[in-house]
């Protein structure tokens, strides 16, 4: 009985893994097929290994510029939100005043509002400060949308830490600011890892706000560049479209593979603390 249950469990895991991998494999096959080949002709699981598709896709889609823009927006948004959200979470967690409770409640309510609803007032504000079609403007937008999540995560983690840490830091001559960065922040790395995982990929793949705030071709991020490139060919050149999509997902896959131990450790420690 136990053997049968184990076999069924392994079979279920294999099936789930295949279902997850299959779309990416089909994408890779399409990307490696020659322009003259129709997908359903011949062995559909064996590509032609036509590597020129990636060169053509890179040159025609301008995906390299879009990658650089996405990297700047993602890194800038994460750094800005981690710094400001961490400090705000520290203040709310350590000073349990009525005002801080009100602020924390307002931030939690903001998490329930879809980001697209905030786009109209944000667009009006960005126009007034001349931040449309600028990467720093998009960084501010993404940080604004991610701020409630950051404050919630950091507040929850910091509340689990004993206040004696702050008192010991004060005895050593630390101010509240230096106590946070030197003592508290290194201890809440799982919170930072959780925030990066939950929001980093969302910022990288942001399309809903990028359409409004990054209208210039030179400032487009990856989702916008893919959308424009796909509309240009309208399904006529699947090999180039697939090659462009494959190139676009490479940075995310590489980042996850390189830092997967840190990500998993951060999530595991966060679950234990929670």
Mean pLDDT: 84
| Shape assignment | globular
> CATH homologous superfamily name of the largest domain?
MetI-like
CATH class of the largest domain: Mainly Alpha
Structural class: mainly alpha
Instruction: Give the domain tally.
Output: 2
What is the secondary structure topology, with strand pairs?
Blueprint: H1 2-32, H2 52-61, H3 63-94, H4 98-110, H5 119-128, H6 135-159, H7 164-171, H8 176-187, H9 189-204, H10 210-213, H11 222-233, H12 238-273
Helix pairs in contact: 1-12, 2-12, 3-6, 3-9, 3-11, 4-6, 6-9, 7-8, 9-12, 11-12
Structure in a nutshell:
The chain contains twelve helices and no strands. By secondary structure, the chain is mainly alpha-helical.
Keywords:
274 residues; mainly alpha; MetI-like fold; 2 domains; 12 helices
């Amino acid at each position: 009985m136990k053997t049968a249950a184990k076999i069924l469990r392994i079979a279920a895991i294999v099936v789930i893994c295949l279902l997850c991998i299959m779309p990416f494999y089909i994408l890779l096959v399409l990307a490696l097929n020659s322009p003259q080949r129709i997908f359903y002709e011949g062995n559909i699981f064996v590509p032609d290994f036509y590597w020129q598709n990636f060169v053509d896709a890179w040159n025609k889609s301008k995906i390299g510029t879009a990658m650089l823009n996405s990297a700047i927006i993602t890194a800038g948004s994460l750094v800005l939100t981690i710094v400001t959200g961490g400090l705000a979470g520290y203040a709310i967690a350590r000073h349990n005043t009525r005002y801080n409770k009100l602020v924390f409640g307002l931030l939690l309510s903001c998490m329930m509002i879809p980001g697209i609803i905030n786009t109209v007032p944000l667009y009006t504000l960005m126009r007034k400060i001349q931040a449309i079609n600028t990467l720093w403007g998009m960084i501010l937008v993404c940080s604004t949308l991610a701020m409630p999540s950051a404050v919630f995560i950091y507040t929850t983690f910091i509340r689990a830490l004993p206040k004696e840490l702050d008192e010991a830091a004060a005895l050593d001559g630390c101010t509240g600011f230096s106590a946070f960065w030197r003592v508290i922040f290194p201890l809440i790395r799982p919170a930072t890892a959780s925030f990066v995982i939950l929001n980093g990929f969302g910022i990288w793949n942001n399309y809903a706000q990028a359409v409004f705030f990054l209208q210039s071709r030179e400032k487009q991020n990856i989702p916008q560049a893919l959308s424009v490139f796909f509309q240009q060919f309208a399904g006529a050149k699947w090999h180039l479209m697939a090659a462009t999509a494959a190139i676009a997902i490479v940075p995310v896959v590489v980042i996850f593979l390189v830092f997967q131990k840190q990500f998993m450790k951060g999530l595991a420690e966060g679950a234990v603390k929670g």
